[in-house]
């Protein structure tokens, strides 16, 4: 059983089916453009493969399998409007020229409203967020007005299950260090994230890579995220 397709324990599921209505985006997750946005984009950190796989394996272990459509990720912005895509891409292309790859490390697990998160220490990402926020502030969603670097390890579960997971992660997870090699832009598609572009740091030209949908079906689906070396 690979890290990217690790099965979840059925006891992690919520009572009853998880419906499409529950997956619908909340008003505070909607970009403020004054129009209906048929396409929304996510901007996330692009990390090296080993770190990515270690944290994704932890997520796969604890996230309810029936709704786990993503790998582990640290998102800077979660609802960038398609109507502003050219503006968004131009700003990303500019900002990545001013950065070189930088370290990322996991911190303490913590309780979320319906699950467990994992703190992330990645100070330069906060600066990138602030730079882009100033340019995009006119159309950002309420959710995107704030940024706390973290991995979501578990969500959509009962509080008692989340508390047990918190104890287990504290006891068993040794943490992971890695490198952030750039930024990735994804199209949101009914719970899946479909890669639009990878923007490596320190390069004037966007890196060309063909990478399929960000989902759990096959380990070969995953890109080599920057190629930097890391250690668990």
Distance between the termini: 20 Å
How would a textbook summarize the main sheet? 8 strands, antiparallel
How many DSSP helices? 5
Query: How much beta, percentage-wise?
Result: 25-35%
Q: Which word captures the global form?
A: globular
Number of strands: 8
What portion of residues is helical?
Answer: 25-40%
Overall pLDDT: 81
What are the secondary-structure elements, in order, as H or E?
A: HEHEHEEHEHEEE
What does this structure look like?
Helix content is 25%, strand content 26%. A hairpin with a 2-residue loop joins strand 6 and strand 7. Residues 1-21 and 205-232 have low confidence and may be disordered. Strands 1, 2, 3, 4, 5, 6, 7 and 8 form an eight-stranded antiparallel beta sheet that branches. It is an alpha+beta fold. The chain is globular and about 45 Å long. The protein has helices spanning 20-23, 49-62, 85-96, 123-136, 159-172; strands spanning 40-47, 75-81, 102-111, 116-121, 150-154, 177-189, 192-200, 213-214.
List keywords for this structure.
eight-stranded antiparallel β-sheet; 25% helix; disordered C terminus; 5 helices; 232 residues; 26% strand; single chain; 8 strands; alpha+beta
Nutshell version of this structure?
The protein has helices at 20-23, 49-62, 85-96, 123-136, 159-172; strands spanning 40-47, 75-81, 102-111, 116-121, 150-154, 177-189, 192-200, 213-214. With 232 residues, the chain is an alpha+beta fold.
């Amino acid at each position: 059983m690979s890290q990217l397709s690790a099965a979840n324990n059925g006891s992690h599921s919520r009572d009853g089916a998880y419906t499409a209505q529950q997956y619908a985006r909340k008003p505070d997750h909607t970009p403020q453009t004054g129009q209906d946005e048929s396409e929304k984009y996510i901007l996330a950190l692009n990390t090296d493969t080993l770190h990515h796989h270690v944290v994704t394996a932890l997520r796969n272990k604890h996230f309810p399998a029936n709704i786990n459509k993503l790998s582990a990720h640290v998102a800077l912005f979660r609802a960038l409007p398609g109507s502003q895509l050219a503006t968004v891409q131009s700003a990303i292309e500019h900002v990545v020229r001013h950065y070189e790859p930088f370290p990322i490390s996991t911190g303490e697990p913590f309780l979320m409203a319906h699950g467990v998160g994992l703190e992330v220490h990645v100070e330069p990402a906060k600066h990138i967020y602030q730079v882009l926020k100033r340019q995009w502030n006119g159309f950002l969603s309420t959710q995107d007005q704030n940024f706390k670097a973290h991995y979501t390890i578990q969500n959509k579960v009962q509080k008692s299950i989340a508390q047990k997971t918190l104890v287990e992660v504290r006891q068993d997870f040794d943490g992971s260090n890695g490198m952030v090699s750039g930024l990735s832009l994804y199209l949101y598609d009914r719970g899946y994230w479909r890669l639009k572009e990878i923007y490596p740091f320190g390069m004037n030209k966007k890196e060309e890579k063909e990478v399929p949908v960000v989902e759990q079906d096959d380990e070969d689906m995953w890109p080599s995220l920057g190629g930097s070396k890391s250690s668990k």
